[in-house]
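tl;dr need the bound structure. longer version: we got a ligand (phosphoenolpyruvate) that a collaborator sent over and nobodys looked at where it sits. i said id run it. heres the input, straight from their email, havent touched it
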Amino acid sequence: MSTSATGDLDAWRELPAQQQPDWDDPDELRAVAAELAAQPPLVFAGECDQLKAQLADVARGEAFVLQGGDCAETFTGANADAVKNKLKTLLQMAVVLTYAATVPVVKIGRMAGQYAKPRSKPVEARGGLELPAYRGDAVNGLDFDAESRRNDPHRLLKAYHCSAVTLNLCRAFTKGGYADLRQVHAWNQDFVAHSKSGRRYERLAGEIDRALTFMKACGVSPDEFHGVEFYSSHEALLLEYERALTRIDSLSGLPYDVSAHFLWIGERTRQLDGAHVEFLRHIRNPIGVKLGPGTSADDALALMKRLNPEEEPGRLTFITRMGAGKIREALPPLIEKVHQSGAPVAWVCDPMHGNTFEAPSGHKTRRLDDVLDEVAGFFEVHRALGTHPGGIHIEFTGDDVTECVGGAEGLAEGDLHQRYETACDPRLNRGQSLDLAFLVAELYRKSS
Ligand code: PEP
Ligand code: CO
């Protein structure tokens, strides 16, 4: 590794870094970082480049991104059933989009590394007791007691190992036969009997089945039907962790963050002169930046120039999270200015984070109608400007949780307590995720 490459990768240390935990013991943190730096990569540079090429297709208007998973993954959630349920839902959504919208879908899990959270307040108070806020399983525990809320650097090692376990399951499920297109019905088996969205999906799966049988009878059975490409992603929040997992690729001599294929910078850490932008500027993975309603067109342009000065196709994705009430006004100026510059960018809609509110019961929730309205606004804006609505970024889980209201099953605010399990933001359940996929497919068909 040349000194200048290493120097670039550590330049962020001189800059202000938002949202970093106050670790208990800096010596312990250094020891953990050294241990992480000696671990094998979770992903390979060639895979990151392959994803970058697919995101270049998205920026050109030839493919669509489906990115999703938990707001915050948990260590206990790194088990076969939970991972399989999430993947199954992602595969079902992807099939709906591919078939009903006839567009290639780039599948990216918000999985295998999403263990750190930015927080609006550094502390949480309950019944007179004040403790550090929960910052994700990579930092501390969700339980509200002093021991659990201690910011423990050893959790970074556990985050690495849980990411490895999860990614291994994802690789096995997506390559080992489970994701074969002939399994379209199998993914739905446990769901079809008791859900309207499941039955709607079943009709579509029936059509796909007939198409496959027809193709087989014609002697066609392409390899692409037997598995899918799946990529991992998370917010690159904890810079010590991301730095320790950055390696120089032996083929190209360039640095890649091997903790995930795709990394994004959150709305709270995207300062142009901050540590996160500085660090991510130097890694060669495809990256994203979240843009909230306060983003100016100049901010977006400056981020683009800083993070993708060479205008490499597929390198940069803007993930907008404006809120249903704001997207129609807030998004057009950003797109216009960025596109005038001529640089390639993929535009993805996160319809979750601008639409969160507190229900009377105290549960943090989102209305599926608001989520759908923001997605509709995203398509309207792109259609009006002649640009490509490149994808969606969502928080969902494969389980039948009750965290967001609305959807074909009519989940109400009074139902939220029944199965509210998220460690952070409210997630769409499986039925709501499928409802969303059907709507997006419809909007896509209309706009193309
Ligand atoms: C998130 O994706 O969970 C998140 C915190 O988003 P944002 O940075 O857009 O607020
Ligand atoms: Co979230």
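gonna send this back to them w/ a short note. Residues 154-175 form the longest helix (22 residues).
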